[in-house]
């Protein structure tokens, strides 16, 4: 019953987003692991926080045909993220993929 509920919630999670982010017209990838051997790795960040992640092989077609633009959401270090995302994409693809700042304002109180 719990697994069925988790799968149901995951299916809806990919479609729900705050109206302020409508401009981003994004695709979402939901990783649902019901087995212990596929748990996400944990990355320790310099600011003493941890970030779960899963490595994916997206393939050359993804970067050359599907990825058209990256919108960097509101955050305290947005300029650094814009530069970092642009550099990463240039390294991975050998071409310039537009990286733009979200119009949604950053609110540090949230």
What does this molecule look like?
The model has no long low-confidence stretch (mean pLDDT 77). With 110 residues, the protein is of the alpha+beta class. α3 links the parallel β3 and β4. The protein has a two-stranded antiparallel sheet with strand order 1-2.
Write the topology of this structure.
Blueprint: H1 2-13, E1 41-44, E2 50-53, H2 60-66, E3 70-72, H3 78-93, E4 99-101
Parallel strand pairs: 3-4
Antiparallel strand pairs: 1-2
Brief summary:
The chain has 110 residues and is α+β, with helices and mostly antiparallel strands. The chain is built from 3 helices and 4 strands.
Question: Which structural class fits the helix and strand makeup?
Answer: alpha+beta
Count of individual helical segments? 3
What percent of residues are in strands? 5-15%
Determine the fraction of residues in helical runs and give it as a percent range. Answer: 25-40%
Largest sheet: 2 strands, antiparallel
In spatial order, strands of the major sheet run 1-2
H/E series, N to C? HEEHEHE
Shape: globular
N-to-C CA distance: 33 Å
